[in-house]
Specification:
Radius of gyration of chain B: 20 Å
Helix content of chain A: 25-40%
Shape of chain B: globular
CATH architecture of the largest domain in chain A: 3-Layer(aba) Sandwich
Strand content of chain B: under 5%
Radius of gyration of chain A: 20 Å
CATH superfamily of the largest domain in chain A: P-loop containing nucleotide triphosphate hydrolases
Largest sheet of chain A: 6 strands, mixed
Oligomer: heterodimer
Number of helices of chain B: 11
Strand order of the largest sheet of chain A: 6-7-8-3-9-10
Largest sheet of chain B: none
Order of helices and strands of chain B: HHHHHHHHHHH
Number of domains of chain A: 2
Shape of chain A: globular
Number of domains of chain B: 1
Structural class of chain A: alpha/beta
Distance between the termini of chain B: 44 Å
């Protein structure tokens, strides 16, 4: 049986800089998490997998075919890029319709798939709003919608949870898990371990352009639990939030941002903390603007691994 | 059957890309700048009209001569170049800078088809931005109580318009190639249009044939205009040869731009 995706001794370099170094992998149906700190080579590997770049050395194949300039394969691939870039003047529905037209569907099919994709990412009500007026979370969702609208067999999602609110994160995580159950091949990248862990237990761990480890996430989890995890929260009333969380047993410390727009929490059990946060925000009537997790701790784990 | 389906799909893809690009180009800041340039050309037409009406020059100038001069200097050597330079170099580079190229490249569309669609959009927007200026300049210079010259010289206008379109096609394809290929394409384009073409135009011999402007000037019908001055040091190329050369150059530039787009890796900065 042919693997969905295969990379054989793949390297990619830009001048003197090696972005991906001699990577070999075989991926089948299901969800695979591509985990690594910023600059590990995840995005470059995703661009190689999606045929946006061609390997300097080695070969990447999908369903046994080379990807670079193999246009027909793009019926079978959906890609959600990391960058927050759009044709800003378009509405969400127009954007999806144009993307679907490029797949050769007739007008009725374009309309049907547009509606379906908007429904899936819960943007039906905002369909006629210009993308320029979308919030960060909505922009992330419409980016996902263009990746899934043509029902591809392979989905490649580059940092899909970046900038999403907790509810949005939960929904995307559920979607990714469902696609995995639907026997699609889903590759999802992140530099945050617990995000990946929520979607899959199969990971490809990257560092400095190389695949350090492949397989089960739990071993990594054991390592990371020994180290505090930083969670940065921007919200309407940071002081009220700090009062509410400072007594939690898993919270090591709380630091206010110098700009006064939020705080950074240090936690040894980030999953527990994330689970508790939405309810807390509702109880205390605090509006969440952004939640991010700097990769310092993951970086520490990588240092362990490469030693 | 399969081939006709593929052609139909190809044409549909070209149109989709063209409409998408047209919308992006039209609503960019470049359009404001191009409108300003058009106003300059129209301002010059008004000045020409005032000169004609008030007999400010000792020898009587026919409207056709003023119109021809305006076409040669302000429309083709100024407006057409700037319109194609700004929009043509932006066709790919704007998608790279805006990081939207990924959305196009992740579709089952051949990259040469993307280039063709974008080039079609460039031709449309070029015509939309330049032709009204040509018509309005003609009207400014010819509208008066005696409408006979207006109707008599309509043929001149009819000959000028295809030449303007040919200039849009040729310069557009060249600047589209620069945009797909080079990082600082607008600067290179300016150097080509106003440095190389300006310099070579006054050189005798074969080198002038290495410019687009030479072939356009060769088919330009206004023999008594300023464009003819630059021909003093060299001969015109035959009309048919000029037209064929311009068409071949256009095809060559677009084909090369398509190949560049097909083979080049565009790295979108994170």
């Amino acid at each position: 049986m042919t693997a969905v995706l295969e990379g054989r001794s793949v390297s990619k370099w830009y001048g003197q800089v090696i972005a991906v170094n001699n990577v070999t992998f075989t991926l089948e149906q299901g969800v695979v998490g591509l985990l690594g700190p910023n600059g590990a080579g995840k995005s470059t590997l995703m661009k190689l997998i999606t045929g946006q770049l061609q390997p300097s050395q080695g070969e990447v194949t999908m369903f046994g075919e080379r990807i670079w300039n193999n246009y027909e394969l793009f019926h079978r691939i959906g890609f959600c890029p990391e960058q927050d870039s759009f044709y800003e003047r378009m509405t969400g529905a127009e954007f999806l319709a144009v993307m679907l037209q490029m797949h050769g569907y007739d007008d009725a099919e374009v309309a049907r798939r547009t509606d379906e994709a908007l429904e899936t990412v819960k943007l039906t009500e905002a369909r006629d709003k210009k993308i320029a007026a979308y919030s960060k979370g909505m922009r992330q969702r419409i980016k996902m919608a263009q990746a899934i609208a043509h029902d591809p067999e392979v989905l490649i999602l580059d940092e899909p949870l970046a900038g999403m609110d907790p509810v949005g994160r939960h929904e995307v995580i559920q979607m990714v898990r469902q696609w995995g159950r639907d026997r699609k091949c889903v590759i999802v990248s992140s530099h945050i371990l617990h995000e990946i862990e929520a979607m899959t237990s199969t990971i490809l761990l990257m560092h400095n352009g190389q695949v350090l480890a492949e397989g089960d996430v739990h071993q990594i989890r054991d390592l990371i639990d020994k180290h505090p995890h930083n969670i940065s929260i921007r919200c309407s009333v940071p002081r009220r939030l700090a009062e509410a969380i400072v007594g939690f047993p898993d919270v090591e410390s709380v630091k206010f941002h110098p700009e006064g727009d939020g705080l950074t929490v240090e936690s040894r059990k980030p999953d527990d903390f994330y689970g508790r946060l939405p309810g807390l925000m509702l109880d205390k009537e605090i509006e969440l603007e952004e939640i991010t997790s700097p990769d310092d701790n993951l970086q520490a784990v990588f240092h362990y691994l490469v030693k | 059957m399969a081939q006709s389906f593929s052609l139909k799909k190809g044409w549909r893809d070209v149109k989709t890309i063209a409409f998408l690009t047209l919308d992006t180009l039209f609503w960019s800041k470049k359009t404001l700048f191009v409108c300003l340039l058009s106003l300059i050309v129209l301002g010059l037409a008004v000045v020409g009209r005032v000169v004609l009406s008030l007999n400010l020059v000792p020898t009587a100038l026919p409207s056709s001569q003023v119109f021809g001069t305006l076409m040669a200097t302000s429309v083709i050597r100024f407006l057409v170049i700037f319109v194609t330079l700004f929009y043509g170099t932006a066709l790919i580079s704007e998608e790279v800078e805006g990081k939207t190229l990924t959305y196009l490249f992740m579709r089952p569309i051949a990259k040469p088809t993307i280039m063709l669609g974008k080039y079609l959009a460039l031709t449309w927007i070029g015509a939309i931005m330049v032709l009204p200026t040509v018509f309005m300049s003609y009207m400014i210079l010819y509208l008066r109580a005696d409408m006979r010259p207006f109707f008599e010289d309509l043929g001149v206008l009819g000959r000028d318009i295809p030449i303007v379109l040919l200039a849009l096609l040729a310069y557009g394809s060249f600047f589209a190639l620069l945009g797909a290929w080079l990082k600082h394409s607008i600067l290179i384009g300016l150097i080509y249009a106003f440095g190389w073409e300006g310099f070579v135009a006054v050189l005798p011999g074969f080198t002038r044939k290495l410019t687009i402007t030479h072939y356009i000037q060769s088919i330009f019908p206004h023999g008594d205009t300023l464009s003819a001055l630059s021909m003093l040091v060299g001969q015109r190329t035959e009309t048919i040869e000029s037209i064929v050369t311009l068409v071949l150059l256009t095809a060559f530039f677009i084909l090369t731009a398509s190949l560049v787009l097909r083979e080049k890796e565009y790295v979108l900065e994170q």
